[in-house]
Records
---
Amino acid sequence: MMRRDRLFLATTLTAIFSADLYFILLPKLRGMGQGSRQFCSCGPNNLTLPRQEGIATPQLFNWTSGSSLDGTTTDPTDGGSKLGRLFAHPLYNIQTPELEPEERLLQAEQLMEYYRKKVSRWERHMKLYSEAAAVSNITVTEHEVTFDPDASWLKFHLGISRYALYSRDDPAIPQLLQDMESMKLVSADYTQDEKALKGACDCTQVVKPSGHHLKLALKMRNFAKAMFKPMRQQRDEETPEDIFYFVDFQRHNAEIAAFHLDRILDFRRVPPVAGRLVNITGEVLQVTHNEDLRAVFFTSPANNTCFFAKCLYVCKTEYAVCGSPDLLEGSLSAYLPGLSIAPRISIPNPWTRSYTFTGREEWEVNPFYCDTIKQLYPYNSGNRLLNIIDMSIFDFLTGNMDRHHYEIFTKFGDEGFLLHLDNARGFGKHSQDEMSILAPLSQCCMIKRSTLLRLQLLAQPEYRLSDVMRESLEGDPLRPILVEPHLLALDRRLQKILRVIQRCVRRLGEDEVITEDFVKSTARPQTATETR
Amino acid sequence: MMRRDRLFLATTLTAIFSADLYFILLPKLRGMGQGSRQFCSCGPNNLTLPRQEGIATPQLFNWTSGSSLDGTTTDPTDGGSKLGRLFAHPLYNIQTPELEPEERLLQAEQLMEYYRKKVSRWERHMKLYSEAAAVSNITVTEHEVTFDPDASWLKFHLGISRYALYSRDDPAIPQLLQDMESMKLVSADYTQDEKALKGACDCTQVVKPSGHHLKLALKMRNFAKAMFKPMRQQRDEETPEDIFYFVDFQRHNAEIAAFHLDRILDFRRVPPVAGRLVNITGEVLQVTHNEDLRAVFFTSPANNTCFFAKCLYVCKTEYAVCGSPDLLEGSLSAYLPGLSIAPRISIPNPWTRSYTFTGREEWEVNPFYCDTIKQLYPYNSGNRLLNIIDMSIFDFLTGNMDRHHYEIFTKFGDEGFLLHLDNARGFGKHSQDEMSILAPLSQCCMIKRSTLLRLQLLAQPEYRLSDVMRESLEGDPLRPILVEPHLLALDRRLQKILRVIQRCVRRLGEDEVITEDFVKSTARPQTATETR
């Protein structure tokens, strides 16, 4: 283990040195030719960024250089693919060591066996269903399923490691996106969450509003499974200001954009998400074997096919979503491996919100809340708190206030990365930056060096976050995924994150604030003690 | 009784003669001077009105003359108040005979006694409540109530007769509107409907969606009661095409506009409605004595005061309405006398809709449905069917598809007029004319002569419906009540009504179609046999 750690450390140091070379030395050399212009903190933007005051160390980029939001700063490398350049950057090419078998989430044989069983169970089930359907005169479109040992979703599942959901250059990911965008759907059903509710509306919980209940589980010809969230809101609509975050619509485009953002931040903690124009009659209604699901489909007065939330049956048709006449946009998020082969635990976010009209959580009133958290297991050692801070940065960028829980794979123990699932409540308001989402960062004043380096890179005009996001999202069939104001909000929010860190550094010093990640906890991976 | 009927008939014939003189002879004389232009059926409008083919009889106006929708026809009497001229027209000045005591809904002494009892009960109740509130530390603003024997609402109630809810020149009506617009509110509560539900959501019924549950009963200083419906939708928003009529929002401005339209049609079957900017904190929350109602108030993330539907408590805050920060527009509809002193019965509309996604009622599939209805009590004699047709014309003009029941005062028996209550689902779509609402007219092919004469009058440019409506609605404090497209839709729909009648006349002859109303059924008023 020590040998691999040392190798890993060496790789990391090499990467950081490359970054220094690229960002500190090269710009300085270039700066000699161009004069000091590049170090001015961005003239015509209204964020009044404080000038750097010597806090940037050699290892870190200039905090705010070239961070103009209006694009007036000369972009020395304009033209060509910014996204390509980003992913070619040394920071995005730190090699992780060869994975040991126990560092992978799943073993190939185990998964294949699981897959084979699923297919044969499906075939038995279909045979029985067809007979029953013939008797009761139900017409269901039957599609052949195929057992494909090379299926992209299998490769995605096999690629999940203790470091991330996928590796940067895994060709299975673009393939999986493509499969979700176009592969034939063989079945549609409620999700397990939904089935657990059994159609009951849990009115004691504010947390589960109607929007929750319109997601569906779709199965593809090769047994890939994806969660479908239909479009509820136009791209240019902002969430009304009187709406509480916990009853906000879930947005299919937020789910898509969050996947791209997570990949650009190099977290790789969001499962792949693709947009798709789904024929809700031919691809959902006609392939479902669930009579409850059939029962919520209806034809609207305008002759469009619609379906509505199960738990609100009969009362709440105004919550329906409708095709035009059958086609409906939605997001498809790849399923993670089933809980039976890859158990996960769901842990309350220490910075959760109150989910009531008036209640306040301790973190909202106690400025020393983080000191308490730092004492508590599992936040008192290892990377867990830093991972929470990463997540808060991610959520602040998207504007998602609804992070009440997070999940981790039990196999990787307390050092496992946090899954950033369920991002559909992001991108609701481009005109507002909800600073309270950043509370973990601003209260704990710590951040992983690797995260900070990437944030600084994305604040540079050559890699401007809005530009690489725009380019990345262009690859989705439902493009444009985000309207311009949402893209520009990303740049503005990134500046605000950097300023929060800058303030921390000024107050506590860089050594306190910027944490060398990659240094692992000395304990071996262990099974987390929390129970799901 | 016969004497009065004869007097009434004479008055009516005089009025009709005046109308003939004004509309048939005068235009002909004028026409001689102007040439035949006036008889051309409206050049630049896209309704392709059929040219009159001699069906207009001396007693009726020209069907379509001067009915240009774009206002290009010269308006010989432009300038001044069209509404004033309309109400000065002989058709609107047919004198009803002096009312016999039994033709009034209420006797003054009876109502005064009732009022006195209410006031003293209120005072007792308030005394007890104040003591209880003091103990449990609830602060309720207490306003003095006054017993006012000259209150406008008392005069409105006393003015209800077997002919209409109010007489044309009753000064109590403008006074009541003004009182509802500005008089101090002393209490707010759920309506009786609401209380009957006891907070339960009746999910077996599609008919009662959420919108229903946001109406409140407000009491004014002089004990006037009004039903408050808050603004749910912007004036220029149209109901989305996929929304079923029975889950459509209730619109406060539709409630206001319906009162004005009903008065302009001279039906006077809608209780007075006024708009008001209500302070939902000071005028609702702080004066309510109902703890359930208090509990649905909250402060939104944008710091506005909001309240939401009781039956959806906890789950459905997205249904809330919010003030800005406290002020919220709403409609106030005057209450009718209580059921204990003026009982009403609610009768299913024979042309009701199915209120399901796929169900169809008989009238939708059977073109001879009216023949069946004509055989059935109470539609087989008297004016009941003609009253239903009046109501369908009213509803077609507003676009209200939600007329599942109608009410009548039991005191006036089967000949009583129909109350046009609950009009908030009108004015949802200006761009669509829902012809099915006119089914009673188009299937039965009959109409009261008095109604037809007024419709024809309102199709004349001098009295154009959209113009008199615009002028009438200008009197409401929440003006503009309707956006222009809704006003123009009224003219277009009026033309469609006239064409339906024209087709009936062409097919069946005028004698069959146009019914002399004012000829009463020979039976004395009797108590209706249906039970509420």
---
Amino acid sequence: MFVVMRTGAGEAEVNGVKGLILAEGLTPFENAGADRTVIAVVGEIGKRREQLRARLEATPGVATVTAISKPYKLVSREFHPENTVIRVLDTAIGDGGLTVMAGPCSVESREQLFETVDHVATHGATIIRGGAFKPRTSPYSFQGLGVEGLRYLAEARQRTGLPVITEVMDTNQVDIVAEYADILQIGTRNMQNFSLLLACGRAGRPVMLKRGFGATIEEWLMAAEYIASAGNSQIIMCERGIRTFETTTRNTMDLTAVPLLHHLTHLPVVVDPSHATGKRWLVKPLAIGGVAVGADGVMVEVHPRPEEALSDGEQSLTFALFDQMMAAIVGVHEHVRDLHGDLLPAATDPAKAAG
Amino acid sequence: MFVVMRTGAGEAEVNGVKGLILAEGLTPFENAGADRTVIAVVGEIGKRREQLRARLEATPGVATVTAISKPYKLVSREFHPENTVIRVLDTAIGDGGLTVMAGPCSVESREQLFETVDHVATHGATIIRGGAFKPRTSPYSFQGLGVEGLRYLAEARQRTGLPVITEVMDTNQVDIVAEYADILQIGTRNMQNFSLLLACGRAGRPVMLKRGFGATIEEWLMAAEYIASAGNSQIIMCERGIRTFETTTRNTMDLTAVPLLHHLTHLPVVVDPSHATGKRWLVKPLAIGGVAVGADGVMVEVHPRPEEALSDGEQSLTFALFDQMMAAIVGVHEHVRDLHGDLLPAATDPAKAAG
Amino acid sequence: MFVVMRTGAGEAEVNGVKGLILAEGLTPFENAGADRTVIAVVGEIGKRREQLRARLEATPGVATVTAISKPYKLVSREFHPENTVIRVLDTAIGDGGLTVMAGPCSVESREQLFETVDHVATHGATIIRGGAFKPRTSPYSFQGLGVEGLRYLAEARQRTGLPVITEVMDTNQVDIVAEYADILQIGTRNMQNFSLLLACGRAGRPVMLKRGFGATIEEWLMAAEYIASAGNSQIIMCERGIRTFETTTRNTMDLTAVPLLHHLTHLPVVVDPSHATGKRWLVKPLAIGGVAVGADGVMVEVHPRPEEALSDGEQSLTFALFDQMMAAIVGVHEHVRDLHGDLLPAATDPAKAAG
Amino acid sequence: MFVVMRTGAGEAEVNGVKGLILAEGLTPFENAGADRTVIAVVGEIGKRREQLRARLEATPGVATVTAISKPYKLVSREFHPENTVIRVLDTAIGDGGLTVMAGPCSVESREQLFETVDHVATHGATIIRGGAFKPRTSPYSFQGLGVEGLRYLAEARQRTGLPVITEVMDTNQVDIVAEYADILQIGTRNMQNFSLLLACGRAGRPVMLKRGFGATIEEWLMAAEYIASAGNSQIIMCERGIRTFETTTRNTMDLTAVPLLHHLTHLPVVVDPSHATGKRWLVKPLAIGGVAVGADGVMVEVHPRPEEALSDGEQSLTFALFDQMMAAIVGVHEHVRDLHGDLLPAATDPAKAAG
């Protein structure tokens, strides 16, 4: 349920509405938009819906009370029509600029990390990526350097001035990762690790949520809703390919997800062509494709010598390939930036959007 | 097996090789490239491989005899490194220009068809599409106007000067469709209707082969090989979405297929965002995406009044939306045309390409 | 729309209803059940629904007129509550007995076929299978013996007294296949070859319809509806595995399809564990599984020397494995035959069945 | 790498081998079979493989040293040819008997739980199931009673004498769940939550590992390998359906997984037809199917009044349906128990098994 306040409604009136919601054992979430304030009512409303609606409509300052047509609420465009912009250090994600997250799959050593970030930071990257805790299919594969890797990442931030994103695999790691990194990444295998979603939602850092390789768009948005319901709506959605019958590529990149998400949610969307394709020579064309359909950025894996990488060498870009990709996507981003404005709900029929 | 002739080998030498192949009960296919001629040997070679190879290598004019690493041969880049360009009336597909196939899903009446083609032909379409024989999930749905529809399409060609593409559903329809249409379309449900593939291969018209919604890239190329093996390599590949667990869109558009195909085959590739997404407001962004990843063209459904369409109204563009899409993709095509040259085999490692 | 006649309604009354339907340009299909006659009205009814219903209700002999909740009508349990039993020579499919279709993947020679059928016919098979026209992914693979293979199959029928089933791949082959074989098989790649479905519907022979490897249950039933709408409801449904992300087996066998189909349709259902698993050692356990969930029979591939087979050798049973499988499934069939009676619509809630 | 000891090799010789392995920084895992002892060497062996092999072969008591053909080692049949039998209280899983895990989806109240367990415990269940911590797609759905629910489950064990299984969703919950429950369940969404797998591997309780709905058989076995690598090989594999394009059922139950797993691993396998189908009327036929293909047991959801259930009411069995299912599967289990002995590696060709 959304409570839309009248234009010009004051703090007292907003607090009156919130108080009524809290008194019902429900939780109010406020979006103070440019025009007017909207308050989402979340929790199990059940049978009291009609009665509650009537009481809210009768509360001073309330314009209308509307049902929410989607199961996700705080992350929906209906609640928050403006794009969410996430600001970290001097970088912004979702403000119309092009975000480029680049770095090695795994932090393998201080030297390997620094060699990589020195290159990408001076050739267009806006955020440094690198895995310290690595989710691996086999318990016998390299599992990452752990806290040592985090420390190197913090040094890399110092060195480059760029914010750092790294994966957190377990609730017990959230505090330590949040201490060293600027953005927490939740990996594809943990997209529905609900305990982790809530813990990241409380960590006070922006969160990048990768799509589960077997997850629908709606489940992905519901996972984001978990994070938002814990008080954090600084969420970046990352499309990284889904699992299908096709085996030529590692996954099937679902580029339709980008305009769909821009329509359904206010959160920024980036694409990861490295994991989606699994082949380095396909990273550039799919990064171009992602930017062309309107993605706010890309995440790619880069390694000084991919053939020596401890993980995902097949899909890591060399420095030369990274530079080629950058040259291509900067131009494409510039070219397409005014082409996708009509995807916002005002310009389409929301009822049919997910129909 | 490929027989690569020496540079400067003459007709007599080429005929000598062909004769040897025919005498073995196998079939030679010749690709006379700018540099040198390649002859593919197709058929069940089996145990005589080594002996045959030795005999071919000893034949006058032969430079080398190499194994073919892929199960498809005539459609592979290995056999035919140059892009195939298909010319129909005044239009070319695969020559670096942007092909736009547009028109109604079904030809519903002479008036509806003419109203549509008059618009699209004057707003950027290069080929007219329209269904006369319609494959429908239900036997009780509108099945198309049949031969009457074909006649209207032929009139539309007269009217616009543009070539016409339409679907052929059965071997018995190949002759009549080939009589009226310029390009034969094989639909997604018939991608492995091998009798139809062979019949279209013999019809003397270019063929557009839609990807089966459950088919891998390799199966799709093998289906194209059926057409080529019947003597026709004027084939256009059309990505139209595959079936996955995601239900928000009608299908999942596999844009990675575009650079993959450009790497693996010499045939032109177009994308069909109408069927891939099933929603008209997603057609423009995905058409942009398809062109951005290097597609040679797009195919879209357009209807004067989509809400009255007898089939696929939800995904048909209005005239206004068609014009918006055209404005977007012409610019994107211009912008990206030099970005994808490195996908050709010479620039990548073929061994890893499909690895 | 279904017109349910009163108990005891006579031929004149039934004809009156049919006449009214025909006069509307629609087609009546009659099911004369033990209790009462039901007439299905098929065709595009559109806006005249309410008016037509009123007129039918006022016609002598009519008890009620009801809407059909499913898109398939003639193949639905709602139209035809009793199981359809198909009788060919001395064999019945769907009568509660166990159907076993066995034989080689391809008819490779007269000797290979006879050696195989002599074994299976004396060890439990009730129907002989064998491919004369073979759909192959590659145009260069063995395509079957064609009409010569059909002749051998007809000889095999003479030899064993058992009916013969073989695949028809194209409308042009329907007549010749129907001349030699007792049951026409439509393969997985042709499940939505609508021209072929209609041609088989008119051929006067029972038809076995394999599920498309990418087809939903509903699309499969709609394909059967095509055959039925052409006047032939002697249809056997064959589950042969669907395509998923799992690659350990050739396909994923969907055994849930068996009880689902028994609930939704009156047609008999068999399972094909050879194609579903692609591995001979998995054929017996999955044949047991199929019979256990209520299948009316199984179809399996058998070869005297699988390692020499020209197609599908990996999944062909040896004679010894066939015998082991027979011993197992005969007992399981006997054991489970009274366990599944409650799947019929009377015993479940049809509204929830496919909900 | 597997070190196979000579028949009759003593403790000193086994310790000698283990010492050598430990000295290399690798981990030895011992399986003392009836005939002879096998020691698996796990860890990153890398380039020292040949040298290590030679040294091990020269160690007293060693018969042979063999490569392991699969990426999973401790859970493979190659390492441990005998079936693993798990004993909890008076119940055994994997000993040839029929395990039946039954109870409510969620523990909703003390009364609801006791009413349910009183019924199922006296009608054939061998293990009590019930969710205290519930993974829900929406953060606003009922999340389970938490520790209160665990206490009720412990009471239910007292009441019935049966062991209790319940889900653990996070590493932080492992201790408390292990305190109250007899078997820890890892849910489908957490199958690749590697931190949780390791934590459960160290908890000293048997673990039931549900298959991820998007996971291949090999990934599932690798997840089990994580648990085993932490020192716990008391693992039950639970097939609960995978995600495919088919939407009639909640998931597609992959019954082929049962014989495949019995071939590839020594761990017991149960099936969960409640989650696989999502429809209560399909639970009985698929439970029959699962038992028929050789499952060691079934897990089902039962509720006194499914229409009032706080979660998964559509798929919960009533008491009457549970009794019908029990009557059916007990007989089927008895009937098939001698039919699947030939799935063990000795009876098939392991090279082809997963080929």
---
Amino acid sequence: MEISRDHPRYRSLVVRERMSELVRQGVVAPTGLIAHGRGEAFDYMLGERTTGTAANAEKTAAAWLLEARRPVITVNGNAAGLCADGLLSLARAVPARVEVNLFHRSPERVEKVVSYLESRGGKDVLGRVQSSRLEGIASDRAMCCTEGIYEADVVLIPLEDGDRAGALVKAGKTVLAIDLNPLSRTSLESHVTVVDELTRAVPSIERTVLELKDDAEERKRLIAEFDNAENLRLSREAMCLRLKVQGSGF
Amino acid sequence: MEISRDHPRYRSLVVRERMSELVRQGVVAPTGLIAHGRGEAFDYMLGERTTGTAANAEKTAAAWLLEARRPVITVNGNAAGLCADGLLSLARAVPARVEVNLFHRSPERVEKVVSYLESRGGKDVLGRVQSSRLEGIASDRAMCCTEGIYEADVVLIPLEDGDRAGALVKAGKTVLAIDLNPLSRTSLESHVTVVDELTRAVPSIERTVLELKDDAEERKRLIAEFDNAENLRLSREAMCLRLKVQGSGF
């Protein structure tokens, strides 16, 4: 479908069409489109920008990734569809392992997403073989890679389901989420929640990773001073502000 | 995919899977799933209930449909997927013509949606033949049925795009929208905006249609006293309230 560059929502429409195309290719699940829509709504209420509190959360997430001994970035269909290049670049910068982990898991879909990441330059992408099992979650959603999520101490989970976020926290890992919904279970349960749009958040985290590589003191300060409850409260407040101002149309 | 009845979001998940299935059947467009997700987010912030102001808007929409000489209800893929039976029942109650009108129009998709409505008992459903053109909108989105939208004086437009809502208003019609986003162009441009979830709104409008059939005085009162700007403001306020109260997770 041809989208007029004049359309006031041109960029959103282009992303939507691309996500639809990735559904046809089997990378994004159909219900992933629904999740994408939810994110669009929350992002609109954020004002489609990185808030001050999200910027701070991004720096803190970067600090955690650098402090980690075994950092892992999980990637599902939506994250791959929206931000494959950015996530792979961030993984190389830390460095961190990348593991493909899907809500609607099937060998075919895992293969599609892993291959897609490899086609974007991903090396040693985990996901095809998942031999370990997380506790406290339905078995079809519990499988993960031994040398990935299972052995990780810090996990970055973009666009993840609440059940899995909770299971990772219970398993004793430090959980860094990227989630536009400040009310979601994922947001509430994670240790650091970046309430920002994925393609804004990921490059921002990478920039700080590069800045803080040799600054252990600043990393520790960021981690010590971070308060996720306050971060979520400020994110919700930012959305409220937007609701009070009459929009020009979405 | 089997969804556990224990999952805290069981009902939402069932609807999402059904919408995904209707995409596979060609009734719902893939980008329609994204729109559905946006609605989910806004509905969550409404508290997934009919607010007082939405209830009043529903009554006012019913009054307008009864006052109309040529009322028409437009149906797109999402509206059909979510609420075909309810919309057909409302149309019979008024009575109003039903016209299928799609954002992603193709003869195949129009046929799918019209056939779907017919399979749910729809009679004289318009949409296969669109000979008239609305002004002020890109030509592929301007086509409509002569004896439907084109000649209508009052149009109920569930889940409609802002461009088309605006074109209908410019064409001099009274536009009644059902839209969960109180900031959208559709919401701002329509004369009556029902900020409520479709499957709650439609039966509510039908109930009032049956109640007000013989009460011209009450219909006129509702119409005279309705203030859409105030209605939208109260809807935004309801969402703000929800953001301020920490959710148990979405």
---
Amino acid sequence: MPRYALLVEYDGTPFVGWQRQASGLSVQQVLEEAAAPLNAGRPAATMASGRTDAGVHAEGQVVQIDIALELHPDRLRDALNFHSRPHPVSVLAAALAPPDWSARFSCIGRGYRYRILNRRARPALMAGRVWHVQTPLDAEAMHAAAQGLLGRHDFSAFRAAACQAKDAMRTLDRLEVRRQGEEIHVLTEARSFLHHQVRNMVGTLAQVGLGRRPLSWPRELLDGRDRRKAGQNAPAEGLTFLFARYPQPLRWQD
Amino acid sequence: MPRYALLVEYDGTPFVGWQRQASGLSVQQVLEEAAAPLNAGRPAATMASGRTDAGVHAEGQVVQIDIALELHPDRLRDALNFHSRPHPVSVLAAALAPPDWSARFSCIGRGYRYRILNRRARPALMAGRVWHVQTPLDAEAMHAAAQGLLGRHDFSAFRAAACQAKDAMRTLDRLEVRRQGEEIHVLTEARSFLHHQVRNMVGTLAQVGLGRRPLSWPRELLDGRDRRKAGQNAPAEGLTFLFARYPQPLRWQD
């Protein structure tokens, strides 16, 4: 059965997350059911590079999908976009997957962006896409504090209670904070992240940006490895999965 | 009764447009009812610089509002944002209006942006914010053709059948088309526009961008003054009201 890679954009707002769950509609269910007409009427099996939580968006999620039919990747993309309407899930491109390739296990780099709307008035056009923080944040202080988290560490202080990873050692390659007008963007990249790691890091950096904690605090939390002491888990709606990197680049058709 | 100016952002998707209508909820109704607690319990009277249609968004609509209470503009902004929840309407700033000032009749310049998503895959994150055109558009050709519309002309060819303006003479100061990645943005500015003028101009330029009409066509249409011959009225959802200009700048508090 041929395996394809999909490059997928979605608005996470109406979904319980990437992963199928009995409690509601997931992005995975939308894609698997959209593929049924190409898969002898049965939902296709998928796996994603990043299992995003409820409310988290994607601009470049990478998904593997196994389909009974052998067909041109462009036709697969168009068929999935037709059958997944009107859900806010769009297949931007498709590719035949290399042999033994897994969207999740072959992935060697993942990137996220977190958006904070830092102004007095609540969001209208950006509702559901940003974390609204009314008090002015010092983005430069957040950036300086963030640099203390780079490198290979035990990130237990920033993992979710429900995180199922066997160990908490991760290598953080990038954690940049910069202001863009009324917004503050946090860009981060690692081979992989723990559950809630990005949102816990952002919530912690926000405490520094508000002036409530010193620049040294995020690193002290990291060293303490106690997840009960970190800042709030920043809301899901500000987070977007940007990209997944693989040793051999995928040959997207579009 | 003191008059205030409001700088307003809204997502036009759920509204019948700016203007109050019996057929459904308008942005005007949301703001007027949100002001009632500050206006002896009665909805306040408002007027906008631009009466946007159903589905059209705003990043910088300017609205006048007459309120029985004299209060600090910041308090007015915060109160309107509190009482207008959960509708996607947000007052970014407020100001005491200069004497004899009208949001509509004092306005000497209005600016709009039109967004086209020009890619094969339908929008997910940008659904409701862009016109989706799947066939590649030549933005440079559209820009070149647009320049023929600048200046003072009778824009009858680009007005809506229902347009109530007494005459169709308008002065178009700016009509720029540029590509930004997968999107094409059309930026336009004039003292005032006819009903549907921006969307009719965009629909006409798209015909040039698709290569179906020559660069000279939009100007020929203009000169012909026959509105039945223009390109399609581009969908409302791609249009955003950006700004309104006045002879004396408003002193926004924020």
